[in-house]
Amino acid sequence: MLFAQGWGLRCYKCNIGFWNMCITTTTSCSPGQSCFNGVGKAVQHIDLKMKGCLKNEDCDAVSTVDFLGNTTYYMNKTCCATDLCNMAPGSSHLPLLSLPATLFVFAQLTGVLL
């Protein structure tokens, strides 16, 4: 008989990063989830990155995010299934000083600031 571990798969997590900036932490996934790396484009010019846990059925797919009727960005999410497997080239643990710059760019993309 097999016993399940009391904790889930550990993954790097980055809610959203621009170009090669992605402020990462670690997180534990729920059962039925894998680690993922997301790579995409916003407004056809700005490289985006995401990391974290994703339901297995949502792996290896491209999703689009619409904001106010316009496609804000698309994201290709690929999965892996070993602890901390989603650290990809170009990922980094950046100091918090880069957070204001990241938030400013995101605000510009979504039209919050004019």
Task: Explain the overall architecture.
The chain has one helix spanning 98-110, and strands spanning 10-18, 25-28, 33-42, 46-55, 61-67, 70-80. It is mostly beta strands and 114 residues long. The chain has one domain (10-110): CD59 (Ribbon), CATH 2.10.60.10. A 6-stranded antiparallel beta sheet has the order 2-1-4-3-6-5, with helices on one face. Strand 1 and strand 2 (25-28) form a beta hairpin. The chain is globular.
How do the strands and helices of this protein lay out in sequence?
Blueprint: E1 10-18, E2 25-28, E3 33-42, E4 46-55, E5 61-67, E6 70-80, H1 98-110
Antiparallel strand pairs: 1-2, 1-4, 3-4, 3-6, 5-6
Summary?
The chain has 114 residues and is mainly β. The protein contains one helix and six strands, in the order E-E-E-E-E-E-H.
Low-confidence stretches: 1-6, 89-99
Sheet-strand content, in percent, reads 35-45%
* Helix residue percentage: 10-25%
Total helices: the number is: 1
Q: Tell me the Rg in angstroms.
A: 15 Å
Instruction: Let me know the CATH homologous superfamily.
Output: CD59
Question: What's the pLDDT, averaged over the residues?
Answer: 77
State the assembly state of the protein chains: single chain
CATH architecture: Ribbon
The domain count comes to 1
Order of helices and strands: EEEEEEH
The helix-and-strand class reads mainly beta
Distance between the termini: 60 Å
Largest sheet: number of strands, sense, barrel closure: 6 strands, antiparallel
Fold-level CATH name = CD59
- Shape by Cα distribution: globular
Which strands sit side by side, in order, in the main sheet?
2-1-4-3-6-5
Level-1 CATH class name: Mainly Beta
